[in-house]
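Private note to self, pasted from the team thread so I don't lose it. C-alpha coordinates:
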Protein backbone atom coordinates (compact mmCIF):
# COMPACT_ATOMS: atom_id res chain seq x y z
CA UNK A 1 0.00 0.00 0.00
CA UNK A 2 1.34 3.41 -0.91
CA UNK A 3 0.24 6.61 0.79
CA UNK A 4 1.02 9.93 -0.88
CA UNK A 5 0.99 13.00 1.32
CA UNK A 6 1.21 16.47 -0.29
CA UNK A 7 2.60 19.36 1.73
CA UNK A 8 1.92 22.89 0.47
CA UNK A 9 3.68 25.39 2.70
CA UNK A 10 2.84 29.04 2.29
CA UNK A 11 5.97 30.94 3.38
CA UNK A 12 6.02 34.69 3.70
CA UNK A 13 8.11 37.38 5.37
CA UNK A 14 6.98 39.66 8.08
CA UNK A 15 7.44 43.31 7.18
CA UNK A 16 9.20 44.21 10.44
CA UNK A 17 12.87 43.53 9.84
CA UNK A 18 13.40 42.16 6.40
CA UNK A 19 11.74 42.93 3.03
CA UNK A 20 8.74 40.84 2.10
CA UNK A 21 9.29 37.70 0.10
CA UNK A 22 7.38 36.15 -2.75
CA UNK A 23 8.29 32.49 -2.72
CA UNK A 24 6.11 29.52 -1.69
CA UNK A 25 7.84 26.21 -0.96
CA UNK A 26 5.98 23.12 -2.28
CA UNK A 27 7.15 19.69 -1.15
CA UNK A 28 5.70 16.40 -2.41
CA UNK A 29 6.54 13.72 0.20
CA UNK A 30 5.98 10.04 -0.76
CA UNK A 31 5.85 7.52 2.13
CA UNK A 32 5.82 3.79 1.42
CA UNK A 33 3.79 1.93 4.05
CA UNK A 34 4.21 -1.84 3.66
CA UNK A 35 3.03 -4.58 5.99
CA UNK A 36 5.78 -6.44 7.80
CA UNK A 37 9.00 -5.28 9.40
CA UNK A 38 10.77 -3.61 6.49
CA UNK A 39 13.49 -1.06 7.26
CA UNK A 40 12.40 2.58 7.34
CA UNK A 41 13.00 4.32 4.00
CA UNK A 42 14.61 7.72 3.73
CA UNK A 43 12.10 10.46 4.42
CA UNK A 44 11.90 14.20 4.96
CA UNK A 45 12.68 15.51 8.43
CA UNK A 46 11.75 19.10 9.26
CA UNK A 47 12.48 21.92 11.71
CA UNK A 48 10.88 25.34 12.02
CA UNK A 49 11.68 28.43 14.05
CA UNK A 50 12.05 32.19 14.21
CA UNK A 51 15.01 34.26 13.07
CA UNK A 52 15.79 37.71 11.68
CA UNK A 53 12.26 38.96 12.30
CA UNK A 54 10.71 36.18 10.23
CA UNK A 55 10.43 32.39 10.12
CA UNK A 56 12.73 29.64 8.95
CA UNK A 57 12.05 26.10 7.75
CA UNK A 58 14.63 23.37 7.28
CA UNK A 59 13.71 20.13 5.50
CA UNK A 60 16.19 17.38 4.77
CA UNK A 61 16.19 13.76 3.67
CA UNK A 62 17.35 11.17 6.20
CA UNK A 63 16.62 7.56 7.08
CA UNK A 64 17.31 8.25 10.75
CA UNK A 65 14.88 9.90 13.13
CA UNK A 66 17.66 10.32 15.69
CA UNK A 67 19.11 13.39 13.94
CA UNK A 68 18.50 16.54 15.93
CA UNK A 69 20.19 19.59 14.50
CA UNK A 70 17.70 22.24 15.65
CA UNK A 71 19.76 23.62 18.52
CA UNK A 72 22.79 23.96 16.24
CA UNK A 73 20.66 25.61 13.55
CA UNK A 74 19.26 28.10 16.06
CA UNK A 75 22.74 28.88 17.39
CA UNK A 76 24.14 29.42 13.89
CA UNK A 77 21.29 31.77 12.94
CA UNK A 78 21.65 33.67 16.21
CA UNK A 79 25.33 34.22 15.39
CA UNK A 80 24.49 35.54 11.91
CA UNK A 81 21.93 37.92 13.39
CA UNK A 82 24.32 39.10 16.09
CA UNK A 83 26.88 39.88 13.41
CA UNK A 84 24.74 41.48 10.69
CA UNK A 85 21.52 42.92 12.12
CA UNK A 86 20.84 46.65 12.30
CA UNK A 87 18.10 45.91 14.84
CA UNK A 88 20.52 44.69 17.51
CA UNK A 89 22.29 47.66 19.11
CA UNK A 90 25.49 45.76 19.91
CA UNK A 91 25.70 43.64 16.76
CA UNK A 92 28.98 43.68 14.89
CA UNK A 93 27.37 45.72 12.11
CA UNK A 94 25.67 48.18 14.50
CA UNK A 95 28.98 48.86 16.22
CA UNK A 96 30.46 49.78 12.83
CA UNK A 97 27.53 52.06 12.10
CA UNK A 98 27.90 53.76 15.49
CA UNK A 99 31.68 54.18 15.24
CA UNK A 100 33.31 57.55 14.67
CA UNK A 101 35.10 58.53 11.46
CA UNK A 102 38.67 57.20 11.58
CA UNK A 103 37.72 54.02 13.38
CA UNK A 104 39.18 50.75 12.10
CA UNK A 105 37.43 47.53 12.98
CA UNK A 106 38.65 43.98 12.54
CA UNK A 107 35.87 41.98 10.91
CA UNK A 108 34.74 38.49 11.69
CA UNK A 109 35.38 36.04 8.85
CA UNK A 110 31.63 35.84 8.21
CA UNK A 111 30.97 39.59 8.05
CA UNK A 112 34.07 40.18 5.94
CA UNK A 113 32.83 37.56 3.45
CA UNK A 114 29.38 39.16 3.19
CA UNK A 115 30.80 42.68 2.84
CA UNK A 116 33.23 41.55 0.13
CA UNK A 117 30.43 39.80 -1.76
CA UNK A 118 28.19 42.85 -1.42
CA UNK A 119 30.91 45.12 -2.82
CA UNK A 120 31.50 42.75 -5.74
CA UNK A 121 27.81 42.80 -6.70
CA UNK A 122 27.66 46.58 -6.19
CA UNK A 123 30.52 47.05 -8.63
CA UNK A 124 28.99 44.67 -11.17
CA UNK A 125 25.59 46.38 -10.95
CA UNK A 126 27.04 49.91 -11.01
CA UNK A 127 25.52 50.62 -7.61
CA UNK A 128 22.02 49.19 -8.17
CA UNK A 129 22.87 47.02 -5.17
CA UNK A 130 24.35 49.20 -2.43
CA UNK A 131 24.65 48.38 1.27
CA UNK A 132 25.23 52.07 2.15
CA UNK A 133 21.63 52.89 1.23
CA UNK A 134 20.62 52.31 4.87
CA UNK A 135 20.08 56.00 5.79
CA UNK A 136 17.64 56.36 2.89
CA UNK A 137 15.86 53.15 3.83
CA UNK A 138 15.46 54.50 7.36
CA UNK A 139 14.30 57.91 6.15
CA UNK A 140 11.59 56.29 4.05
CA UNK A 141 10.42 54.28 7.07
CA UNK A 142 11.60 50.79 6.10
CA UNK A 143 14.43 50.38 8.62
CA UNK A 144 14.83 50.03 12.39
CA UNK A 145 13.69 53.63 12.98
CA UNK A 146 10.11 52.59 12.20
CA UNK A 147 7.38 53.49 9.74
CA UNK A 148 6.58 56.95 8.39
CA UNK A 149 3.33 58.24 6.94
CA UNK A 150 4.82 61.15 5.00
CA UNK A 151 7.42 60.99 2.25
CA UNK A 152 10.68 62.89 2.92
CA UNK A 153 11.31 66.09 1.00
CA UNK A 154 13.88 66.39 -1.79
CA UNK A 155 16.08 68.44 0.53
CA UNK A 156 15.94 65.77 3.21
CA UNK A 157 16.91 63.12 0.68
CA UNK A 158 19.76 65.21 -0.69
CA UNK A 159 21.09 65.80 2.81
CA UNK A 160 21.96 62.10 3.03
CA UNK A 161 23.73 61.77 -0.29
CA UNK A 162 27.15 62.55 1.11
CA UNK A 163 26.82 59.36 3.15
CA UNK A 164 25.60 57.02 0.39
CA UNK A 165 27.67 55.18 -2.20
CA UNK A 166 29.25 51.72 -2.18
CA UNK A 167 32.67 53.20 -3.03
CA UNK A 168 32.68 54.71 0.48
CA UNK A 169 33.08 51.24 2.00
CA UNK A 170 36.81 50.78 2.66
CA UNK A 171 37.73 47.13 3.21
CA UNK A 172 41.38 46.17 3.66
CA UNK A 173 42.96 42.96 4.95
CA UNK A 174 39.90 41.84 6.90
CA UNK A 175 39.30 45.26 8.40
CA UNK A 176 36.79 48.03 7.72
CA UNK A 177 38.30 51.51 7.79
CA UNK A 178 35.60 54.09 8.43
CA UNK A 179 37.14 57.12 6.72
CA UNK A 180 33.75 58.75 6.07
CA UNK A 181 30.32 58.68 7.66
CA UNK A 182 28.46 55.57 6.45
CA UNK A 183 25.62 53.39 7.67
CA UNK A 184 25.55 49.84 6.35
CA UNK A 185 22.35 47.83 5.82
CA UNK A 186 22.69 44.13 4.93
CA UNK A 187 18.97 43.32 4.85
CA UNK A 188 19.15 42.42 1.14
CA UNK A 189 21.91 39.84 1.55
CA UNK A 190 22.20 38.67 5.18
CA UNK A 191 19.09 36.52 5.11
CA UNK A 192 20.35 34.73 2.02
CA UNK A 193 23.69 34.27 3.76
CA UNK A 194 21.88 32.77 6.74
CA UNK A 195 20.33 30.21 4.41
CA UNK A 196 23.81 29.33 3.12
CA UNK A 197 25.13 28.93 6.67
CA UNK A 198 22.44 26.38 7.50
CA UNK A 199 22.93 24.60 4.18
CA UNK A 200 26.63 24.22 4.91
CA UNK A 201 25.89 23.04 8.46
CA UNK A 202 23.67 20.27 7.07
CA UNK A 203 26.33 19.25 4.58
CA UNK A 204 28.88 19.01 7.41
CA UNK A 205 26.44 16.60 9.08
CA UNK A 206 26.46 14.41 5.98
CA UNK A 207 23.05 15.55 4.68
CA UNK A 208 23.03 15.36 0.89
CA UNK A 209 19.47 16.48 0.17
CA UNK A 210 17.74 19.46 1.78
CA UNK A 211 15.61 22.57 1.34
CA UNK A 212 16.46 25.50 3.63
CA UNK A 213 14.24 28.59 3.74
CA UNK A 214 14.39 31.85 5.69
CA UNK A 215 11.57 34.31 5.06
CA UNK A 216 11.11 33.04 1.52
CA UNK A 217 14.76 32.85 0.45
CA UNK A 218 15.84 29.27 -0.22
CA UNK A 219 18.61 26.88 -1.08
CA UNK A 220 18.00 23.39 -2.41
CA UNK A 221 20.29 20.42 -2.78
CA UNK A 222 19.79 16.89 -4.00
CA UNK A 223 16.53 15.04 -4.58
CA UNK A 224 13.51 14.17 -2.47
CA UNK A 225 12.82 10.57 -1.41
CA UNK A 226 10.65 10.04 -4.50
CA UNK A 227 13.65 10.86 -6.71
CA UNK A 228 12.16 14.18 -7.81
CA UNK A 229 13.67 17.65 -7.54
CA UNK A 230 12.40 20.11 -4.95
CA UNK A 231 9.48 22.16 -6.25
CA UNK A 232 9.18 25.87 -5.51
CA UNK A 233 6.14 27.97 -6.36
CA UNK A 234 6.65 31.61 -7.36
CA UNK A 235 3.88 33.80 -6.04
CA UNK A 236 1.76 36.11 -8.17
CA UNK A 237 2.68 39.64 -7.00
CA UNK A 238 -0.73 40.78 -5.75
CA UNK A 239 -1.30 43.09 -2.79
CA UNK A 240 -3.96 40.89 -1.23
CA UNK A 241 -3.24 37.99 1.06
CA UNK A 242 -5.25 35.68 -1.18
CA UNK A 243 -2.05 34.15 -2.48
CA UNK A 244 -1.82 32.69 -5.96
CA UNK A 245 0.88 30.74 -7.74
CA UNK A 246 2.39 32.29 -10.87
CA UNK A 247 4.83 29.52 -11.79
CA UNK A 248 6.32 26.37 -10.28
CA UNK A 249 9.99 25.49 -10.74
CA UNK A 250 11.88 22.26 -10.04
CA UNK A 251 15.30 22.86 -8.51
CA UNK A 252 18.33 21.22 -6.95
CA UNK A 253 21.80 22.47 -6.03
CA UNK A 254 20.85 26.15 -6.26
CA UNK A 255 19.96 29.23 -4.21
CA UNK A 256 16.65 31.00 -4.88
CA UNK A 257 15.52 34.51 -3.92
CA UNK A 258 12.69 36.83 -4.88
CA UNK A 259 12.47 40.61 -4.55
CA UNK A 260 9.18 42.45 -4.96
CA UNK A 261 7.53 45.81 -4.35
CA UNK A 262 3.98 44.67 -3.70
CA UNK A 263 3.75 44.03 0.06
CA UNK A 264 6.15 46.28 1.95
CA UNK A 265 5.15 49.88 1.20
CA UNK A 266 3.22 52.89 2.47
CA UNK A 267 0.81 55.27 0.76
CA UNK A 268 0.46 59.03 0.88
CA UNK A 269 -2.29 60.86 -1.02
CA UNK A 270 -2.90 57.83 -3.19
CA UNK A 271 0.78 57.40 -4.10
CA UNK A 272 2.42 54.12 -3.15
CA UNK A 273 6.06 54.14 -2.01
CA UNK A 274 7.88 50.79 -2.22
CA UNK A 275 10.50 49.62 0.28
CA UNK A 276 12.97 49.10 -2.59
CA UNK A 277 15.07 52.27 -2.73
CA UNK A 278 16.99 53.20 -5.87
CA UNK A 279 20.43 54.39 -4.68
CA UNK A 280 20.74 56.58 -7.78
CA UNK A 281 17.70 58.70 -6.88
CA UNK A 282 17.29 58.14 -3.16
CA UNK A 283 13.63 57.35 -3.79
CA UNK A 284 11.51 54.18 -4.06
CA UNK A 285 11.52 52.53 -7.48
CA UNK A 286 8.81 53.76 -9.86
CA UNK A 287 8.94 51.32 -12.78
CA UNK A 288 6.50 48.50 -13.56
CA UNK A 289 8.58 45.54 -12.40
CA UNK A 290 6.53 43.85 -9.65
CA UNK A 291 8.89 41.03 -8.69
CA UNK A 292 11.98 39.19 -9.83
CA UNK A 293 13.17 35.72 -8.89
CA UNK A 294 16.85 34.81 -9.21
CA UNK A 295 18.65 31.46 -9.17
CA UNK A 296 22.32 31.48 -8.20
CA UNK A 297 25.01 29.22 -6.78
CA UNK A 298 24.42 30.55 -3.26
CA UNK A 299 21.38 32.11 -1.64
CA UNK A 300 23.37 35.19 -0.61
CA UNK A 301 24.17 35.85 -4.27
CA UNK A 302 20.57 35.22 -5.32
CA UNK A 303 19.33 37.57 -2.58
CA UNK A 304 21.61 40.44 -3.60
CA UNK A 305 21.16 39.99 -7.35
CA UNK A 306 17.36 39.93 -6.94
CA UNK A 307 17.53 43.34 -5.24
CA UNK A 308 19.85 44.72 -7.92
CA UNK A 309 17.55 43.56 -10.73
CA UNK A 310 14.52 44.93 -8.89
CA UNK A 311 16.17 48.34 -8.73
CA UNK A 312 17.15 48.22 -12.42
CA UNK A 313 13.68 47.34 -13.69
CA UNK A 314 12.67 44.68 -16.20
CA UNK A 315 14.45 45.96 -19.30
CA UNK A 316 17.81 46.87 -17.80
CA UNK A 317 17.58 43.98 -15.32
CA UNK A 318 17.05 41.46 -18.11
CA UNK A 319 20.06 42.80 -20.02
CA UNK A 320 22.19 42.63 -16.87
CA UNK A 321 21.06 39.08 -16.10
CA UNK A 322 21.88 37.97 -19.64
CA UNK A 323 25.29 39.62 -19.56
CA UNK A 324 26.17 38.01 -16.22
CA UNK A 325 24.67 34.56 -16.88
CA UNK A 326 22.04 34.97 -14.17
CA UNK A 327 18.88 32.87 -14.39
CA UNK A 328 16.03 35.28 -13.63
CA UNK A 329 12.25 35.48 -13.90
CA UNK A 330 10.56 38.90 -14.09
CA UNK A 331 6.87 39.66 -13.47
CA UNK A 332 5.93 43.04 -14.91
CA UNK A 333 2.72 44.99 -14.32
CA UNK A 334 0.75 46.01 -17.41
CA UNK A 335 -2.78 47.12 -18.31
CA UNK A 336 -3.99 43.51 -18.57
CA UNK A 337 -2.41 42.31 -15.33
CA UNK A 338 1.08 40.81 -15.44
CA UNK A 339 3.60 39.96 -18.13
CA UNK A 340 6.26 37.31 -17.63
CA UNK A 341 9.82 37.71 -18.89
CA UNK A 342 12.54 35.16 -18.23
CA UNK A 343 16.09 34.46 -19.27
CA UNK A 344 16.61 31.34 -21.41
CA UNK A 345 18.33 29.55 -18.55
CA UNK A 346 15.42 30.09 -16.16
CA UNK A 347 13.05 28.49 -18.63
CA UNK A 348 14.80 25.15 -18.02
CA UNK A 349 13.51 25.07 -14.43
CA UNK A 350 9.80 25.50 -15.22
CA UNK A 351 7.38 22.71 -14.36
CA UNK A 352 4.90 22.37 -17.20
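Design output:
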Amino acid sequence: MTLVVNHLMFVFRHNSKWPAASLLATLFLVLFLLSGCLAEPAKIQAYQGLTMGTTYTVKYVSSSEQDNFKSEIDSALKAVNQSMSTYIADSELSLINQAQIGHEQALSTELNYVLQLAQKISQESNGAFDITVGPLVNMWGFGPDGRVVKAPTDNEIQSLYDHVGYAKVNLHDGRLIKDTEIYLDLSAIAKGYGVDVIAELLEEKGIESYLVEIGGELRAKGLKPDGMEWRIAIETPTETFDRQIQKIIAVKDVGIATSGDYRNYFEENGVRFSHTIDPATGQPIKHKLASVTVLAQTCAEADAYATALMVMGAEDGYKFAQAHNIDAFFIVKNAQGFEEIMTPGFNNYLVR
